[in-house]
Amino acid sequence: MNTQDDQALADEWAAALEETGDAGQADIDALLAADSGSSASNRLPMEEFGSVPKNNDPVSLEGPNLDVILDIPVSISMEVGSTDINIRNLLQLNQGSVIELDRLAGEPLDVLVNGTLIAHGEVVVVNEKFGIRLTDVISPSERIKKLR
């Protein structure tokens, strides 16, 4: 860049700073000092997301805040099984390829909600569509404990 470009850039910055008003660094420092002095005593310390609540109350789904989350959509999926393969084998897959899974035939499927196991079940056909009959459901308190 040459000095004309530098000067043009400096002029643009000067114009932008003039548009912001009369507030200088001293005014900003005064506002920050006033804010930290008046509300520092009102602030609570931040907690880590994974931390255990300070009160040792048992985990419960009862309470007034549950209604807030009842209409949030979640993704539910059924997992037949899984396996690990290397990229070379992945690239060689084509129509008719068979991938061996880690489950035996007849074993129950995992029912996952947003990737979290909530139940086991078996495949059924209802009105020509696949469905799943839940055979074992993990209790809500156990699901919440697993999240921690």
Describe this structure as you would to a colleague:
With 148 residues, this protein is an alpha+beta fold. It has a domain at 74-95 and 105-145: SpoA-like (Surface presentation of antigens (SPOA)), CATH 2.30.330. The chain is built from 5 helices and 4 strands; from the N terminus they run αααβαβββα. It has a 4-stranded antiparallel sheet with strand order 1-2-3-4. The longest helix has 17 residues, at 3-19. The chain is elongated. The chain starts with a helix and ends with a helix. The model has no long low-confidence stretch (mean pLDDT 76). InterPro entries: FliN, FliN-like_C, FliN/MopA/SpaO, FliN_T3SS_HrcQb, SpoA-like_sf.
Short structural summary:
Helices cover 33% and strands 20% of the residues. The chain is an alpha+beta fold and 148 residues long. It has a domain at 74-95 and 105-145: Surface presentation of antigens (SPOA).
Please name the defining characteristics of this protein:
four-stranded antiparallel β-sheet, Surface presentation of antigens (SPOA), 4 strands, alpha+beta, 148 residues, 33% helix
Taking pLDDT < 50 over at least 5 consecutive residues as the criterion, the unreliable ranges are none
Gross CATH architecture of the domain at 74-95 and 105-145: Roll
Largest sheet: 4 strands, antiparallel
The name of the CATH superfamily of the domain at 74-95 and 105-145 reads SpoA-like
Q: Helical segment tally? A: 5
Protein name: Flagellar motor switch protein FliN
GO cellular component, one term: bacterial-type flagellum basal body
GO molecular function: cytoskeletal motor activity
Subcellular location: Cell membrane; Bacterial flagellum basal body
